[in-house]
What we know:
Blueprint: H1 3-26, E1 36-38, E2 48-50, E3 54-55, E4 61-62, E5 65-67, E6 74-77, E7 81-83, E8 88-92, E9 95-103, H2 118-143, H3 145-148, H4 156-166, E10 171-172, E11 185-189, E12 204-206, H5 218-224, E13 229-242, E14 245-256, E15 260-266, E16 287-294
Parallel strand pairs: 1-6, 12-14
Antiparallel strand pairs: 2-5, 3-4, 6-13, 7-13, 8-9, 9-11, 10-11, 13-14, 15-16
Amino acid sequence: MEKTDKIKMLIISLLKEVSTSIFSKLLPEYLPVKMSVIRTNDLNIANVKFTPIKPNKMKKPSAYVVKSDDEKTFMMESPTVVAPFGLSDFVTGDQHNYSIPLRFDFKPTDEASESDSDEIKSQRIFRNFIAGLDEMAVNYMYDNSMEIIKRKFPNREAGLAVISALYSPLIKNVPGKDGTIYSDRVNIKLGANEDGSGPNPSYLFFKDTAKPLEISTWQELSELIPKGARVKVILQPRIVLMPGKFFLKLHLVQMKVPNIQRTARITGYAFSDPPAEEEETTTAPVVEKDETHAEDSDAEVVEEDA
């Protein structure tokens, strides 16, 4: 290599280092940050906090859910939970709003017990952590009420009551008309791709391998998550600030779905003994169409709640 080429390479290398250093100081929030994933049993609400409200680079107010020790954002892994309705599509006018409600296997009235399965214990940890985020959010709204809703409360107890009525919690539980108590749920809302035909490509879906599935349409995703499927998710808790509004959202990062296979469903008479009103026949049963079923117990289909 000639001397001039070596000098050119040295100059380019120095320019890269200088530019990276400058941009890391001027635009720190736009640089990629490697977020940690907190495993379910390591979740502890005492180890997280909300940052103060500050204007971001777009001059809009923003805040973040971060770890207390290093003040970095994080993701969290869920235990296996139920997707009772699979992929839900709530239509308002011409607008489709897709989401995946997730349900726990225990009810709020069920007391924790040492005899609970490891899965139930993990679900309780996950559920209580999310409920803790809801409680933090209500107190955060009260402490920052002038910035968020332009209102100051002279009495904390009364103020928290008002804010609790305004806040939409992550943990949902709507009793039945007859007063029946159902299991708690969390709702994972999904964004769409550019033309709205499928989920945002940033979401990653896996089965039993480390290779992401290729999902381009909502129909493909719906077939991937049948009603009652048991799934795991990686979520990032986020704060959403809008004029007069404040809420938390659980942003989907990854989802692990059950291994689904297709088998034919027979509609003709398939028993070895012939029907009483007919002579014995060797006619083969009729195959009508495909039917989805789970390959393993993790994809067990359950009845949906009322």
